[in-house]
């Protein structure tokens, strides 16, 4: 485990070196946060309890989305691009010879990346949003702790989804198309555009049952106090269930894929 802890630390440090990119990301998240916040303000002015949220809760949802956008890699762009390229050019063969678990190696690095983005690109936009708007911030430290647990589970689910996406390159050789589909799913079904509670009827039920809801909808509801007691543990069980199922699917697909490694270019 010390090895994977070191990989996680390395992942954190790796992204910490891109200070200009981090500053640009903070600026972008903040600008889009304001755009969405004003759109939500107009919408909730007409429908004050839309989706079971009041306006302060809806605005909090907006800024949580900006804080978790990079943390949970809702649009992709994390480790999967590098892994797809290593599969395409054959470097994956070197990775498979290493005395480490391939899936755990990438998961450890991804946890380090997620922690950096949560601290580096999440806190500042959220703080700016809290200064500019009236947000529903919890006063109980235990709620913040429960929120961090939900975010961590969301990051693991996100990794598991994108690991499956990356492994598709063993058959497609270029996983860009699958990655784009997964990114669209992450954007729409995470609640990034609108809270999933707003979605009507069957569409809402399906959206909330998909793994992408673990990225934002579940952590946001925990943060807003919508999940307490037994409901909180049900939320954790939902996220953990998807994490275990998807990680197991990734492990099974990895076993099949590595039996047919093809090194491109000789």
Textual characterization of the structure:
- It is a single chain.
- The protein is mainly alpha-helical.
- The protein is 73% helix and 0% strand.
- The longest helix is centred in the middle third of the chain and has 31 residues, at 102-132.
- The protein is globular and about 55 Å long.
- 41% of the residues are buried.
- Mean pLDDT is 90; it is low at 262-266.
Write the layout of secondary structure elements.
Blueprint: H1 2-16, H2 19-46, H3 55-68, H4 79-89, H5 92-97, H6 102-132, H7 141-167, H8 169-172, H9 176-189, H10 201-209, H11 217-223, H12 230-257
Helix pairs in contact: 1-6, 2-3, 2-6, 3-6, 4-7, 6-7, 7-11, 7-12
Q: How do the helices and strands follow one another from N- to C-terminus?
A: HHHHHHHHHHHH
Mean pLDDT over the residues: 90
Strand runs, count: 0
Helix content: over 70%
Shape: globular
Summing up helix and strand content along with how strands pair, one would put the structural category as mainly alpha
The radius of gyration over CA amounts to 19 Å
- For the termini, the CA-CA separation is 35 Å
What quaternary form is this? single chain
Low-confidence stretches: 262-266
Biggest β-sheet, characterized?
none
**Beta-strand content estimate:** under 5%
Number of helices: 12
């Amino acid at each position: 485990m010390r090895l994977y802890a070191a990989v996680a630390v390395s992942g954190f440090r790796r992204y910490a070196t891109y200070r200009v990119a981090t500053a640009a990301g903070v600026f972008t998240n903040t600008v889009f946060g304001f755009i969405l916040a004003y759109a939500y303000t107009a919408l909730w002015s007409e429908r004050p309890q839309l989706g079971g949220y009041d306006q302060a809760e809806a605005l909090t949802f907006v800024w949580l989305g900006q804080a978790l956008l990079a943390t949970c890699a809702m649009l992709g762009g994390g480790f999967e691009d590098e892994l797809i390229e290593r599969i395409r050019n054959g470097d994956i063969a070197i990775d498979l010879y290493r005395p480490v678990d391939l899936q755990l190696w990438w998961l450890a690095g991804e946890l380090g990346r997620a922690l950096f983005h949560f601290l580096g690109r999440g806190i500042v936009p959220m703080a700016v949003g809290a200064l500019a708007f009236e947000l529903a911030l919890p006063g109980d430290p235990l709620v913040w702790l429960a929120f961090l647990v939900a975010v961590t589970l969301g990051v693991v689910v996100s990794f598991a989804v994108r690991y499956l996406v990356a492994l598709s390159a063993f058959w497609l050789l270029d996983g860009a198309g699958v990655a784009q589909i997964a990114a669209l799913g992450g954007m729409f079904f995470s609640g990034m555009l609108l809270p999933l509670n707003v979605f009507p009827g069957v569409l809402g039920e399906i959206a909330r049952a998909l793994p992408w809801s673990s990225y934002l909808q579940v952590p946001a509801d925990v943060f807003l106090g919508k999940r307490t007691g037994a409901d909180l543990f049900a939320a954790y069980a939902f996220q953990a269930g998807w994490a275990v199922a998807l990680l197991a699917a990734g492990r099974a697909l990895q076993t099949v894929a590595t039996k047919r490694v093809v090194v491109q270019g000789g």
